[in-house]
Amino acid sequence: xxxxxxxxxxxxxxxxxxxxxxxxxxxxxxxxxxxxxxxxxxxxxxxxxxxxxxxxxxxxxxxxxxxxxxxxxxxxxxxxxxxxxxxxxxxxxxxxxxxxxxxxx
Length: 105
Hints:
Blueprint: H1 7-15, E1 33-38, E2 43-48, H2 60-72, E3 78-83, H3 96-101
Parallel strand pairs: 2-3
Antiparallel strand pairs: 1-2
């Protein structure tokens, strides 16, 4: 990964490498990532949701996000992934790229 990118850009790049297992779109473009916060001590808080509360990857996807971000960006000391359903995910959260990929545009 190019070190000249900001830490947030690099985190987003990692998030774009994680795909929803039921939809062939990455979780960032799908709109599952609500917020990425970075503290001065290189601690990262990621607020995310799932397409539905009873999504089959409710246990594994947040863990995958945490492990990938922490392992792929060395200077990050800690990753906290917060799962929320407020607001509930909807198609409006998807990027145009994701909508195009899914034939919704």
